Amino acid sequence: MKDNHSTGTDIEQFVDHSERIVDEIEKAIVGKRETIQKMLAAFLCSGGHILIEDFPGLAKTLIANCFADVLGFKFKRIQFTPDLLPGDITGGYIFDNNQSKFVLRKGPLFTNVLLADEINRASPKTQSALLEAMQEHQASLEGDSFELPYPFIVVATQNPIEYEGTFPLPEAQLDRFIVKLQIGHPTMEDEQTILMRRLQRRKDAVILTEVVTPQEFLAMRQTVEEVYVHPDVVRYIVNLTARTRQHRQVVVGASPRGSLALLKISRAWAAIQGRTYVLPDDVKYFAQDTLSHRIIIEPSLWGSKNIEQAVIDEVLQSTTVPVIVFEHEK
Length: 330
Known about the structure:
Blueprint: H1 11-25, H2 33-43, E1 50-53, H3 60-71, E2 75-79, H4 86-90, E3 91-96, E4 101-106, E5 113-117, H5 124-127, H6 129-136, E6 138-141, E7 144-147, E8 153-158, H7 171-174, E9 179-181, H8 188-201, H9 214-224, H10 231-246, E10 250-252, H11 256-272, H12 280-291, E11 296-297, H13 307-318
Parallel strand pairs: 1-8, 1-9, 2-5, 5-8
Antiparallel strand pairs: 3-4, 6-7, 10-11
């Protein structure tokens, strides 16, 4: 994987960039600042792929496009359907009559931000075409490996209420998403604001401005890598994920990739809050988003509403939170 960035930004500049990114996206997405901040934290992590599970019409597609616009990244969208083939995602070699030879036609996978819309409507074979890209940042075509643009971030969406004609995501693929988020319906006041803004614009499209360059964003990622994590906080993360494997209602607990996801996004969140160190509260804040989709509940509880969230809540309550005193910021 190619890493184009060099040095990071200082924390004050990092916070300024973060606020401008969120403020710009809020011009299109009303009343969802916390969700936007969570998505920004994921974007700032290596392998920061996001799964959004929510009802239709809640701006899942729009929010992914907004991030690409304000960060200056290339954006592609794939509508997943039952007849979608792996080659429709990765591309392939086709015969060019003008050149009298086979030439490579790269698919929509070759972009910075890829929206996989209604990902669970495609077959597992097609869904698995994303696995190599999400983990290795490359795509294999006809035996050759091609590096994807850096960064490469997948924002996948799925509808939680329509199961007919869908294929559940394999556990191995779910594990590649650093967080699973929900957007939720707006309040009545926010929904009225959405309508008023539409009346004022006199068109559907919301034009957003690129507020940071791709190079500045990569420097922000480097700043996240410099955020200090106390050994006791690392142990706290390990204890949380270990307890998911020991829980009486869990068949398969969170993997070490879950621990890494919680570590990475906690550092990004600390930086967004203007800190150069991680607090246990940062870990607790993202425990649900990073771990609930990584556990497999015992079959007798399948279909129970919010059972995964209840398990993570119980794990959080039963795990001792470390008390850390920072003499100075690391």
